[in-house]
Amino acid sequence: MKAFRTGLVVGKFCPLHQGHELLIDTASAQCDDVIVISYTKPEFAGLEPARRERWLRTRFPAATLLVLDDARLAARCRARGLAPRRLPDNAAADEEQRRCVAWLCTALLGRSVDAVFTSEDYGDGFARALAAAFGHPVRHVSVDPARRIVPVSGTAVRADVHGKRQLLSPVVYGDFVQRACFLGGESSGKSSMAAAFAQAIGSVHVPEYGRTLWEERGGRLTFEDMLRIARTQVAQERQLAGHAVRWLSCDTSPLTTLFYSLELFGRVEPALARLAQRRYDAVFLCAPDFPFVQDGTRQGGAFRLRQHAWYLEELARRRVPFITLSGDPWPGLQRCSERSDSLNAPLRQRIIQLITKIISVILSMAAALFSRCGSLSNE
């Protein structure tokens, strides 16, 4: 039997970090049910309620969640036939915050709590205010107030989310990772570039699932496989984003699958067409300006040129900014790779630093280009 029937955790969760998770895990271990309430006013850019709710629901599916802003609160009030109310500002007095939380529990959830879990000095006063509102005792359970178990704060994470990524669950950190997409026709260096890019910046890359499935099927794909390929590609992006570092390198996108669906079958599933609208933070198009290499699976140089022309037209039609990567960098890279074992450590480090600097310049160019066109990342 657990110590409490219903526990309460309240916070901004901007973003949800391991300190918050310790708090909710502790409440879950001691309570039959846990209510988690999240609000902040003003909101923080990129940390909107829908995103916070998704994090919390993914990490704590058994908890009762109430993730609010003023619009969500108004909708909840209308649904229950209540007069609309507004959330208190972050700077509002403790008494106002406590009255609001008590009202949210009783009016919107029809619940009261037996314990409130915090890592803050205000916890005892919070528990007394809730007890007065509910008409029964509410205990304050203090969890790691000195931040010895998890030395973190939301302010510190917001100031350096990538430097503090080890304090975020992958599902949370993945939302802060930018996606770089590499497109190109057959034998354009696209897959090699995507893998090399990830390696150079110490991150991970998403391989082309369509190629994997094509090989598994012996080169025989069906129309139904097209949607499966696009969905799996996106799912793998989402899965790997939380394990990337700043940037996730994506070898192709659903736009490529759309091309092959048209090329092979002359039609496209509506769901695939929607997935092909997926945006990326940077798009690199590998040009077919070096000799075509036939590996036994490719259709030929003319097909490569037609595919490249289609990308140019489609990206322009969709108003997607991109950077063209020209030339064949791979012979030199291969020679460097073959000799890497003979290089001394300082020289290897200088080469890595040079590659990283070049990539940094490219990404800065991409960021400037994409910022002029608005945010292109979507989830």
UniProtKB/TrEMBL annotation:
SUPFAM superfamilies: Nucleotidylyl transferase, P-loop containing nucleoside triphosphate hydrolases. This is ATPase. PANTHER family: NADR_TTD14 AAA DOMAIN-CONTAINING PROTEIN, TRIFUNCTIONAL NAD BIOSYNTHESIS/REGULATOR PROTEIN NADR. It comes from the Bacteria. InterPro entries: NAD_biosynth-regulator (IPR052735), NadR/Ttd14_AAA_dom (IPR038727), P-loop_NTPase (IPR027417), Rossmann-like_a/b/a_fold (IPR014729). Residues 180-328 form the NadR/Ttd14 AAA domain. It comes from Pseudoduganella armeniaca.
